[in-house]
C-alpha cells in the first residue's frame, strides 16, 4: 500500500526503534516539523549515501519538542517506526518548502529467531576488546537495529542493514561483520601491548635445551 511522507533527508542512516535527537534550523524543515506536530503526522528520513538517495529509509515520529527558540529553531526528540522504500521523490512538494514522496512500507518477513546467542557472544568480545560498555536489550525486537550503529559498520554497510527485511538475515549480516573484524582488533590490541613493552626490562624465563 502506497503512502505519502514529507522528507527530512540527512547524511545518516536512521533505524526503526532508534531514538534520534534533531536540531531544526532551516525554514523548510521548521515548516515540515511544525506541520507534523500540528497534524500529528510522521515524516521520513531518507539516507543520502555518497550524495545519492538510495531508496530505503525510515519513518520517524516526533516524541516531543525539547526546546523552541525565538527565531523558529527547535530541538526535537524523534523515534524510528518502520522502514520504507521510496517510490517517488518531489523536491519541493507543491506549495511547500520541503521535499516528499510516495513510499511503500517494508514488512518483516519472519519471526525473531535469528542467531542472537552467537551474536551476543561476539558483541561481548568486541566490547571487552574496546574496554567499553554499550546499552542494549536483547529481548526487544528487532534486536539488530539496536546495535547496527555500535559495531563499526561503514555508512554503506549501515544502509545495507536497512535494506534487509528479515531480522534473522540482519543478525547474520552483523555476525559476519563481527567475525571478520574481531580477530583483527584483537591482534591490534596485542600489537599495542608489544609496543608498550618495547624498550622496557623484561623478566624472561630461560629456555631449557
UniProtKB/TrEMBL annotation:
Annotated coiled-coil segments of the chain = none
SUPFAM superfamilies in the record: PUA domain-like
Source domain of life: Bacteria
Give every Lon N-terminal domain span. 4-180
User: Recorded GO terms, molecular function?
Assistant: ubiquitin protein ligase activity
Quote the InterPro entries the UniProt record gives: Lon_prtase_N, Lon_prtase_N_sf, PUA-like_sf
Q: What is this protein called?
A: Peptidase
Amino acid at each position: 500500500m502506497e503512502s505519502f511522507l514529507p522528507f527530512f533527508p540527512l547524511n545518516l542512516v536512521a533505524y526503526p526503534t532508534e531514538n534520534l535527537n534533531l536540531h531544526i534550523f532551516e525554514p523548510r524543515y521548521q515548516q515540515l516539523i511544525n506541520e507534523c506536530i500540528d497534524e500529528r503526522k510522521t515524516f521520513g528520513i531518507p539516507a543520502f549515501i555518497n550524495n545519492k538517495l538510495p531508496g530505503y529509509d525510515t519513518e520517524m515520529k516526533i516524541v516531543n519538542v525539547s526546546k523552541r527558540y525565538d527565531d523558529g529553531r527547535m530541538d526535537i526528540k524523534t523515534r524510528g517506526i518502520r522502514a520504507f522504500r521510496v517510490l517517488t521523490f518531489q523536491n519541493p512538494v507543491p506549495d511547500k518548502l520541503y521535499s516528499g514522496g510516495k513510499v511503500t512500507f517494508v514488512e518483516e518477513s519472519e519471526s525473531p529467531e535469528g542467531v542472537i546467542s552467537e551474536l551476543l557472544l561476539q558483541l561481548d568480545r568486541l566490547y571487552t576488546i574496546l574496554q567499553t560498555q554499550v546499552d542494549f536489550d536483547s529481548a526487544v525486537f528487532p534486536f539488530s537495529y539496536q546495535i547496527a550503529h555500535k559495531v563499526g559498520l561503514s555508512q554503506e554497510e549501515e544502509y545495507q542493514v536497512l535494506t534487509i527485511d528479515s531480522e534473522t538475515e540482519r543478525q547474520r549480516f552483523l555476525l559476519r561483520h563481527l567475525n571478520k573484524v574481531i580477530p583483527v582488533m584483537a591482534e591490534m590490541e596485542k600489537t599495542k601491548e608489544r609496543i608498550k613493552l618495547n624498550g622496557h626490562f623484561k623478566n624472561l624465563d630461560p629456555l631449557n635445551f
